[in-house]
Write a structure and sequence with these properties.
Elements (H helix, E strand, L loop, with lengths): L2 H8 L7 E5 L10 H8 L3 E3 L10 H13 L5 E6 L1 H7 L3 H4 L2 E7 L24 E7 L7 H11 L2 E5 L15 H12 L11 E3 L5
Parallel strand pairs: 1-2, 1-3, 3-4, 4-5, 5-6
Antiparallel strand pairs: 6-7
Length: 206
């Protein structure tokens, strides 16, 4: 069975969560795993920003919060890059609607001046279950910093080897591992079995 067939069979008949996809700087284009998931998940909504090129924290976080507060079910966030940082900046009202977050390849906004409005990154524990996925050679965020984010946020930490920015440029289109992690958040399983070739560590070991 191909990924599309497996994905279709694994969808819940009656959704109990609202999936909100939060792209990063410059959006997630065609072929990106976020775009593929948005097309195939009937209960998913994608956050659309007015300005993808010169982002401001207030505008991005406001749009994200509006999307979260409009959801009809408890929310599972699926964020990439700068979208992860925007997620951690949400206020308490929106954060209270979130039951889980998959935070993939979080960006370091201090590495690029155009993203500096998102700094400093919050270092408080998130009030919901979260999983940070980071790559050993991400050009936008050192793995040690991603691990520090995970510890501060109280997140589970999945370290990928040589996966770049975990996007289409690094060969991550359909990305079955990410889908499995999302399923674990939706089902609120207590343990996650990473796919072969990947390692998972606890926040304390990150």
């Amino acid at each position: 069975m191909g990924f599309k067939g497996w994905l279709a069979e694994s969808l819940p008949v009656t959704p109990t969560t609202s999936i909100i996809i939060v792209p990063g700087w410059r959006d997630s284009g065609p072929g990106h795993w976020q775009s593929l998931w948005a097309e195939r998940l009937p209960h998913a909504r994608r956050v659309v920003q007015d300005d993808w090129i010169t982002p401001t924290r207030s505008a991005w976080v406001s749009q994200l919060e509006k999307t979260v507060l409009a959801a009809t079910h408890p929310v599972v966030i699926v964020a990439h890059s700068l979208g992860c940082i925007a997620t951690t900046h949400m206020g308490p009202e929106a954060a209270a609607k979130v039951c889980g977050a998959l935070l993939v390849a979080p960006a370091d906004p201090e590495r690029r001046a155009i993203l500096s409005d998102f700094a400093p990154v919050p270092y408080a524990a998130l009030p919901y279950r979260s999983i940070v996925v980071a790559s050993s050679n991400d050009p936008f965020c050192p793995i040690r910093l991603a691990g520090a984010y995970a510890r501060a946020w109280g997140s589970e930490f999945v370290r990928m080897q040589n996966a770049g920015h975990i996007n289409i440029d690094s060969g991550h289109g359909e990305w079955p591992l990410g889908w499995a992690l999302l399923q674990s958040l939706e089902g609120d399983h207590s343990t996650i079995q990473p796919a072969a070739g990947y390692s998972q560590v606890s926040p304390a070991a990150a």
